[in-house]
Backbone:
């Protein structure tokens, strides 16, 4: 087995709110839900702290227990809540949150979990790889961002529309009919999508934050097979370089509307044979 990974912040002026970590038998990737400067969250620690703390807690859990992945996520969210529930207002709608993507290799299976819009790709040797993602965030968001998508990135109008969009989305977070993310409610872990693939079928697997997967699912510049081939040939850093080139080619979102011109980008490639 061989595992390679890379992560790159959207801007050198802001902390990277992605997290990726590995053990001998598991990979964990989180994408913290960043917000524009000035928006309240109720938490003094911030999104980057939340992603790092939940990610490292989850890694510790997966090395110590063979429990189902969703159960490990439940425990981890509870642990992180206990670290700041007396100092922060965790009832605030902007309480830090993160997507979660996990893989765990056992003797017989590759187990997976996704919560919100990070992506797992599993290559079993077929023409197209298996792509695993939780699209509830996208299905909710597309209903509310028509105004945002019509505005030019970097303008005051776009910034104000983004704030309104985020406020609306906060009202749908971790609610029926909306979408589910890791935050202050451990019950959200039970809403994760989970499954497994027989270990002998898997050639490789990749985990991507949406800042890395946007080459395919937002920009449409590669198929999932082409993205996986790029990862295999050039590594995670090569994929991120391609994403950055596409972002710089369309800095104002004129051709590829997006609420973030640049996003934290993280990718991990786990090769088994």
Residues:
């Amino acid at each position: 087995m061989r595992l390679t990974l890379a992560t790159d912040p959207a801007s050198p002026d802001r902390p990277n709110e992605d997290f990726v970590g590995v053990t001998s038998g598991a990979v964990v990737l989180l994408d913290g839900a960043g917000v524009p400067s000035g928006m309240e969250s109720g938490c003094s620690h911030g999104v980057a702290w939340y992603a790092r703390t939940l990610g490292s807690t989850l890694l510790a859990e997966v090395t110590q227990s063979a429990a189902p992945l969703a159960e490990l996520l439940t425990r981890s969210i509870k642990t992180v809540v206990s670290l700041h529930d007396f100092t922060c207002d965790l009832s605030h709608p902007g309480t830090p949150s993160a997507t979660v993507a996990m893989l765990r290799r056992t003797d017989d299976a590759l187990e997976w979990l996704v919560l919100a819009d990070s992506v797992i790709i599993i290559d079993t040797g077929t023409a197209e790889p298996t792509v695993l993602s939780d699209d509830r965030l996208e299905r909710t968001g597309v209903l509310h961002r028509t105004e945002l998508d019509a505005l030019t990135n970097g303008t005051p109008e776009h910034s104000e529309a983004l704030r309104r969009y985020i406020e609306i989305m906060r009202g749908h977070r971790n609610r029926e009919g909306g979408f589910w993310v890791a935050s202050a409610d451990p019950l959200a872990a039970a809403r994760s999508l989970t499954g497994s693939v027989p270990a002998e079928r898997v050639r490789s697997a990749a985990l991507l934050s949406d800042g890395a997967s946007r080459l395919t699912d937002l920009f449409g510049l590669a198929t999932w097979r082409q993205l996986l081939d790029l990862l295999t040939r050039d590594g995670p850093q090569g994929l991120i370089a391609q994403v950055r080139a596409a972002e710089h080619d369309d800095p104002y979102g004129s051709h590829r509307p997006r609420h973030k011109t640049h996003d934290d980008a993280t990718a991990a490639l786990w090769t088994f044979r």
